[in-house]
């Protein structure tokens, strides 16, 4: 059994990639897993139930990023297919459905879950220099704190690892990733 599953390490690396041109996702922690990936030769990143912003196609982008990272960082062969359109948040627990999907794709490790992508903003401060030069005073520069709203987003991801041979969920993990635009708003 591996202490750090190849799929989960690749997942955290994928989340370090950008979901949109003006967003960065700092990943300050790794996922740790105890799932055994040795019975599998292939992995199928099936699709995600999505909520939140419609600014991007969260399902397609999440699947694309995870597949890309798994191809470069995992011993498992990544199955290329159109992402499944999932709408039920409890879809990961539908054993019969995932067993059928597993049979269709020759019993891979299946990665699915929920992805919530929402825009948020936070206050950011910076120091600027203000000039004071009334007629009665000498010219003077004074540091002044200025507050800006900084646009960003939050990605909340629940990832389920499903055994494609049985349709049973092996493990499920949830985490949130804040991301902020590099440009102040």
CATH topology: Rossmann fold
The N- and C-terminal alpha carbons lie at a distance of: 47 Å
How many domains? The number is 1
Mean pLDDT: 79
Shape: elongated
Overview of this structure, please?
The chain is an alpha/beta fold and 185 residues long. The protein has one domain (6-118, 152-180): ABC-type transport auxiliary lipoprotein component (Rossmann fold). It is built from 3 helices and 5 strands; from the N terminus they run αβαβαβββ. A 5-stranded mixed β-sheet has the order 2-1-3-4-5. A hairpin with a 7-residue loop joins strand 3 and strand 4 (140-163). The protein is elongated. The model is unreliable at 1-10 and 12-29 (pLDDT under 50).
Brief overview:
Helix content is 19%, strand content 39%.
Which features would summarize this protein structure in a list?
alpha/beta; 185 residues; disordered N terminus; 5 strands; five-stranded mixed sheet; Rossmann fold
Give the arrangement of secondary structure elements:
Elements: H1 6-15, E1 42-52, H2 58-73, E2 77-78, H3 95-104, E3 109-132, E4 140-163, E5 169-180
Parallel strand pairs: 1-2, 1-3
Antiparallel strand pairs: 3-4, 4-5
Helix pairs in contact: 1-2
């Amino acid at each position: 059994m591996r202490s750090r599953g190849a799929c989960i390490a690749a997942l955290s690396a994928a989340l370090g990639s950008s979901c949109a041109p003006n967003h960065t996702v700092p990943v300050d922690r790794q996922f740790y897993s105890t799932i055994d990936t040795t019975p599998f030769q292939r992995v199928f990143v099936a699709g995600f139930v999505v909520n939140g912003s419609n600014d991007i196609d969260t399902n397609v982008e999440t699947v694309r990023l995870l597949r890309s990272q798994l191809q470069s960082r995992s011993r498992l062969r990544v199955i290329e297919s159109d992402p499944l359109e999932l709408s039920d948040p409890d879809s990961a627990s539908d054993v019969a459905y995932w067993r059928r999907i597993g049979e269709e794709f020759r019993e891979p490790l299946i990665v699915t879950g929920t992805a919530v992508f929402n825009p948020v903003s936070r206050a950011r401060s910076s120091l600027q220099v203000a000039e004071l030069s009334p007629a009665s005073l000498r010219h003077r520069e004074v540091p002044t704190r200025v507050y800006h709203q900084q646009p960003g987003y939050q990605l909340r991801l629940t990832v389920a690892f499903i055994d494609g041979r049985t349709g049973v969920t092996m493990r499920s993990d949830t985490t949130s990733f804040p991301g902020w635009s590099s440009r102040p708003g």
